[in-house]
Prior knowledge:
ARM-type_fold, ARMC2, Armadillo repeat-containing protein 2, ARM-like, mainly alpha
Amino acid sequence: MSGMDLQQDSSEHVQPRLQRQTSAEIVSEARRSLRALATQRPLTPQEKHRALFGESSSRAHDGRPPSAFSLHGRHFEAPDSRPGSGTRLSPLEHKPRLSVSLDEYGGDNEASLPKPPAERGSTRIGSGGSRTRPLRAASIHRLPVMTPHTKNMSLEARIEVEQPDDREKLHYADVTEHKTKLSSETDLHTLLKHRIPQTDVSTEREAKPEARLGYGDTCDDNMDDSVFWSTKVLPVLQEFESFAPGDGVSDEIVGQLCISCNRLHDALAERGMLGRQCKKRSAILRTLFRLIDVGSDRLNLTLAKLILALNVSGNNLLNICKLVFKISRNASNDGMFLADSILDSLLCQLQCEDVWSKAEAVLYCVGSLKLLSGNSAVSSRLLAKDFIGTLLQLSNSLMHGPVTADVTTQRSEGIIAGHILVQVTAALRNIADQSESRPSFLSNEAFFTLCVILEHHRSDLDICINVARIFSKLSTYTECCHALAETPRCCKLFLELLGKHSRKQDLVVRLLFTLGNLTSKSVEARERVYEEEGGIDVLLDLFQAYQETLSSPEQCHAPEKEDILVKLIRLLANLAIHPTVGTALAANSLCVQLLLEVLGRRCVEKSEELVINAVATINNLSYYQCESSVVRSQHTHISQLLLKLLLSSSMDAVLEATRVFGNLSQIRAVRRFIMQHRVEQFVVTLLDSKTPDVCFSACGVLINLSADPDHRAALRAEGTTQKLMDCLRDLGPRDWHLAAVVCQTLWNCSLDGEMQHSQKLLEILQLYTDKGALQWPSDDGVRQVQEACWELLFLPVAESLRQRLHVEDTPGISP
Length: 815
């Protein structure tokens, strides 16, 4: 077996598989001289400030929702009120048959009175009935200001004013018949005197609790509700009312308020009165809204959980989500989100069927979760709650939104959907840092959904960069890499984005890194990139553009641009592992020219990874011996460039240059170049490194040199035989593939009949060819690989060499 034969045998390269390999596959993989390159993942920059959109966002500041705003209790609407439509309805032609004076309130017959319509042009605000006013077109009703009279009233009386039952509504209507305006505080006080009898209040309360609480029906069920209200709810609301907005509240009192809020939440939940089930819901919300002005993040977060549980909607829902977002912007508050079940409340908002009805609220809600997901403890908690599945379901809802014929509506929905997807993809980007997130990404088919998002929003740079960051993180793991490689059209999509956004360095470097990961592990990915129409042209255009940029003196060491070239050249090296792609790239003059320009212009001391990747790519391309290979035709120029690298201080650069010489030294002219420039002396000294990779590369050159009769004597003069025997003795049991190459080199050196130290070599071979005398690893997998390489690679060559030495040492027998 000649040295050239051995080099030719190393052409087989089989894609590593996840299942157990056969011995033949192990050997074929071991013989592979083409290698996939690794590189560092681009780092995700940390935002200095928490916001909806980062400082590097491509969105205009004046065209996106704000991250900073002020919120107070007055910003919340009266519960259950709705903005006016701008259209006044005509009153019903109906008049009450009975007229009830103010003095007659409280009689038992009131429950049977018919309900009169409101006066024309007059309506009550929300569910409160303390004052009336004309309805203005498109008006938004805010919480009424607490007047001195109402502030001094008992909570019970005020709740009756704000939350009348059917009898009270009838009586209000009758009052409205007599007095159409109650705008002054005196009028309100007069009304309250009519509603609350000025008799012995304590006696009245004991006698008729249902009247005190505003319930007209005295059946057992309602009596139970009355008792529940008076014992569980009313005391908590009275406690809240003792704190007027703006008053200074200590941390201790805030803690008591939070406990009371949670007690109220638990009581309503146990009674089944959360959501919109509670009759006094409006009164509860009014009281909770006023507490927001206390200004405590801890209290506001507790209030938000309860208010969300009461199923607010419209402007109130938006403001509560904004309030939570405002709290989440402070990283020191992250622990509060862990201590409460507010995360469940926020996730529920993302699981709505009609996201478009509360899209802006969802934006701030998912924005809060995005900020919180940057905390590893919170992200772990979110993962346990199927956060990834929830976000992907929300994404699908946004991409399959309601179909509307109105162009303006479509555009506005598309804008808000884009804003939300920026938050969704940023949250997924954060959560991808957690190692335990990978099973969830895989089980939810996240890669397919993310590719669909990219396809729908390829012009949105914020979304594209977020998704690219997700892929760059996850594709470093084998199982995720294979899942992404199997996603339809992902390679095509990445190439299209590289062509469309070629100047967006943050995006380009991550797409190239992801493609490099895919092509390092997947044969199919290599084929898809190559077979995609214009795919290789896109990569070479990028190569040329960034190469020219780095040629200018002011940009010659721009790290961001250089990193793009590092990732791009690595991608080319990984593509070249495929025989069809490698042959085509080796014959591509532009590709080879650009690689040689990197070696000619860049200094290994300043751009080590870039230069090493370029040499490794040339090594993979030099492997293919086709006549059209530009690498083979430019062997002289390449050899001169490699000579400079052998003299550098970078051992990695020396190793890569030696590997290229291992392929090119099959060419006679290159062998002459090596001997003329004394390169063989340097290569022989590499055998002293005691490093398997370095010794293996050195043997690759020495095999080809020793196969040439003109150079054997010079090699023996350098002490090559002794160094090869030392290498075999010291490294053979650790790497049987290396041992086989060493034996082949020794065989070539002895082809002219001369072998130094033959007896010593024979002893080593007799020991290493006895399987029972060798020590094997205890790990079954490692042992299987080593035994396969020993049996199929080392043993045939070693036995042939041992027999040759034995014949030479036996008198009277000619070899």
